[in-house]
């Protein structure tokens, strides 16, 4: 039932803004009662959060299976591009602040899961790790949302993001 509601909402979001979609419209399109909808979700944003959670789980699984960090990041980029039109519609809505918070929270959860699984032996304090994850979450969301409509090569972007995340992009540069 959740999947059907989510798919129906996704199709609707390709046609119109999230601001224009009502629960009434969604339940009619699904052929379910309002009670059935509210049994599974609180509101439209709850459905969007569930969709994001499902995508996050799939991205984490794919990233953990990737042979390199760059391949892991490329997997996320390609996943976002598959849903690029949907994300752009959401970002153009009046709910943009909610969507941005949701994307940043998802990026944070993604980074936490991947880092904890792949980099368990890092010599870093939990406070520093938390600060790095928060910082990179905002940066990743900003760059990925900004590049959605562009034709930037996924491999090149993944390489840049990987070098940024690891600090390699700075090479031997030292601040004055």
Describe the 3D structure.
There is one protein chain. It is built from nine helices and no strands. With 176 residues, the protein is mostly helical. Helix 1 (2-15) crosses helix 4, helix 4 (44-65) runs antiparallel to helix 5 and helix 7 (96-118) crosses helix 8. The longest helix has 23 residues, at 96-118.
Report low-confidence residues grouped into runs of 5 or more: none
Order of SSEs = HHHHHHHHH
Mean pLDDT: 85
The end-to-end distance, rounded to whole angstroms, is: 58 Å
- The amount of beta strand, in percent, is under 5%
Number of helices: 9
Task: Give me the secondary-structure topology.
Layout: H1 2-15, H2 23-30, H3 34-40, H4 44-65, H5 69-82, H6 84-91, H7 96-118, H8 126-147, H9 154-166
Helix pairs in contact: 1-2, 1-4, 4-5, 4-7, 5-9, 7-8
Summarize the structure.
The protein has helices at 2-15, 23-30, 34-40, 44-65, 69-82, 84-91, 96-118, 126-147, 154-166. With 176 residues, the protein is mainly alpha-helical.
Entry keywords:
176 residues; 74% helix; mainly alpha; 0% strand
